[in-house]
Amino acid sequence: MSLRVAIIGAGPAGIFAADLLTKSETDVSVDLLERLPAPYGLVRYGVAPDHPRIKEIVKALQRVLGHPDVRFLGNVELGVDVKLEELRELYDAVVVATGAMSDRPLGIPGEDLPGSFGAADFVSWYDAHPDVPREWPLTARSVAVVGAGNVALDVARVLAKTADEMLETDIPDHVHAGLRANRATDVHVFARRGPAYVKFSPLELRELAHSPHVDVVVHPEGFDVDDASMEHIARNKQAKMVLDTLANWVGREPSGKAHRIHLHFLEQPVEIEGEGSVRTFRTERTRLVGDGSVEGTGRATNWDVQAVYRAVGYRSSELPGLPFDHRAAVIPNDAGRVLDLDGRPLPGTYVTGWVKRGPVGLIGHTKSDAAETVAHLLAETTPTATRRDPGAVDDHFAERGVEVATFEHWQRLDQHEIALGEAAGRARVKVADREEMLSVGRAASPTP
Fold this sequence. Notes:
FAD/NAD(P)-binding domain, 2 domains, six-stranded parallel sheet, 15 helices
């Protein structure tokens, strides 16, 4: 008897798990249940629009969705359209792959002030996520971005570039209009540690200097490299490449371009101040202590900014009917087996991706995550579903009045966005409105 598996989330983690399941020696059918009408998760809604090369992975993901034993069921939300206990009746196993879309807090006074934003929210806006507002306040002339990873660089780059530079990407009209109204001239990126320990990728860092309208300024204050830093870069090729790039830029005077990205090291956030909105961002100078870590020096600096973007990491969100470790922001698990509050495995319930291990690592880590989880699922799962016919799933959503977006719906939307892009001389223009996404998907043929 064929195993029936439901995967919650159609981002890379969920699709990789589906791929491994269908390639196994076990006869398996997979339904990918996705809250949005479109698949691909953070590849579609978390990668900066001016990084189309990263989205090349979509070609491989699309092939998995087209497998005859895989069904994409979009516009379906766990806890709203279907309960976990109902999934247990319809499937032999459930794999949770919902990723991480929320922002980690800084934990400093004032971060709730208007003008203090989570980077994930801003990314969702410029990536045209269907569940976020269409407008974004871009009135600040001087902006602080807190974080030492690629998301911080993405935010800084998008804030510093001109709107028309983004017209070669897939952004829709409302994002272009918002960026055109952007008043930012100076974007300050703050890293708590030294330049040898930032998490920038070399390519992302170099891309900061590609805009003809942006100067990159690496401030010499805090640009410290000690013996531990040198030992670190000797073991880490990427860290050495990043440090070499930064060293070439440090102290270089701006050339007079209209926008500037400032990189500050050994500065940790202390407080955001303002009356009714952000007016000042306070940092404390840190110092290297010889083992890769830093400590505060007590020396504070007030930065005159009107907005702060927090890019210090993503968090997963709790899901109905499932345990959740609020401290680690993951679903508790043992090598992918979901654990209950007593630490015992929940039968037929698994987890993979960032909601399993936290928001760290790249696509390669996600693949190995999925392999570990799928191996346990296949070794442990037996047919237990009492409603085994795939039609029972369709009946359930029909009875609930849920408009399910199928793979065929997504193909129509995909072609529609490509057609919109062709009309504008671009590869694609995204549709951002959920109802429009559904309407295009149910249409007989796409039109630009």
